[in-house]
Amino acid sequence: MLAAAAASLDAMSTLNLETASRLIAAGQETARELGVRVHIAVVDPAGNLVAFQRMDGAWLGSLDVALRKARTSALFPVPSSMIGEMSQPGGPIYGVESTNGGLVSFGGGLPLATADGAVVGAIGVAGGLVEQDVAVAEAATKAL
Amino acid sequence: MLAAAAASLDAMSTLNLETASRLIAAGQETARELGVRVHIAVVDPAGNLVAFQRMDGAWLGSLDVALRKARTSALFPVPSSMIGEMSQPGGPIYGVESTNGGLVSFGGGLPLATADGAVVGAIGVAGGLVEQDVAVAEAATKAL
Amino acid sequence: MLAAAAASLDAMSTLNLETASRLIAAGQETARELGVRVHIAVVDPAGNLVAFQRMDGAWLGSLDVALRKARTSALFPVPSSMIGEMSQPGGPIYGVESTNGGLVSFGGGLPLATADGAVVGAIGVAGGLVEQDVAVAEAATKAL
Amino acid sequence: MLAAAAASLDAMSTLNLETASRLIAAGQETARELGVRVHIAVVDPAGNLVAFQRMDGAWLGSLDVALRKARTSALFPVPSSMIGEMSQPGGPIYGVESTNGGLVSFGGGLPLATADGAVVGAIGVAGGLVEQDVAVAEAATKAL
């Protein structure tokens, strides 16, 4: 997966706005089924915003969390939860969250890759329970 | 308690996601007519993001500018250009741009108000020439 | 336009200065009973300051803690201690403190809600032992 | 050790909360006469907050400006407008506003000194026109 990620970064292909919007819509559909109000951010491979939507009534504090989850899974193109597994006390990258202006190391961030493994961005979801955020992010990535 | 919190946030005089999305779409239509690729950000009255879209190919450096224009016109609910007129060297609020985490004092930020004058947020546009950004922002606000 | 903007900010579900001042006074009375000197911050639902008072002799380092406790319980409208329970190593939102510009995840921050459940702000207290800070914050909220 | 530390903080030449509150009340009286809604911050000689009040309906963007005006006139114990005169393009300290985490160089910040000239803090006012902010700050300092 690391090799694929490195290759894709060289290629620097970014998902377009139409795709980002489709992913957000797909995620919101799942959020509504789960009865949660979430923020969804889609970023390019460098972690910069492509599209963002706050569902009405989503917690204000989750806004920044969604942005950082997306950024985390763009800069390190793995699920944000994987960063969390390695950044626990005693873990190999303990404290990595304080790098890159602040990462998020629990679930809800996912890299976005094309069928041939090229990473084209990342998505970050926050506002529900972590497992709900993950479900929304996974539903969104299926629309890629 | 969660439901109560969400309800109270709804009660704030903040434009909803549907409205924010309509404004962005209206702005993009004008941007396409002008042949420019812009970032459009819509924020609540406290300057926090409601929705954001980057048109494909928009300059990366304009992304932050759009976010800050929107934030500027939310925190000080006047056109961002008006801040610029007063913050020039020798002007009454010279240097105000360095407050509030960094404001933008040229055109492209506009407050969003309902017919009865209630400010419900702000919009920020960046990516074209300043007059193009202003035209896009004005077209967007007409969709309110 | 200025008048309209001010009016709309009033319309937000934010507690007013008179209420904020009454809460702070109530909290200080409890602090004096406990023999502690605390900082008390009251913020609006977006985490921005409405009123703040430092009791004479309160520790300087607790000032920022009080501000962040209030901000934490505004952005995530639950007691700040609840964030702490979930953000421990191995917890579901481990490391969330590094989001939103820095949160505080121990007791002393409480959301402020009206009888009908509308969140109108939050309070943050720091300067004593955590249980003392919590007692002061709880005494303050009873004055709402 | 705790008691000793608290005692020593008292010994610093810092105005106490009672004085800070009296100054804020005096400033607000003038603000009401002028028909403006302002934020008033009182800080100690190191620029740290002693007391703060936002009048209902004051512009959100002025909150940070008031805090920075007070901080500016504490760190450099002169009227904040005096910093502005020297920080214009071509001036002796051009760009000084970007030091100390961000200063404000227009009127509304004033140092607070006792009769014998000892600086005990500073006040910052924002929300009205600059001359109104200055009038409010001056009225407040007369209550010292």
TrEMBL record, chains A, B, C, D:
- Entry-linked SUPFAM superfamilies: GlcG-like (SSF143744)
Per its UniProt record, what Pfam families does this chain match? HbpS-like (PF03928)
Give the protein name, as stated in the record.
Answer: Heme-binding protein
Species name for this entry?
A: Catenulispora yoronensis
Name the domain of life this protein comes from.
Bacteria
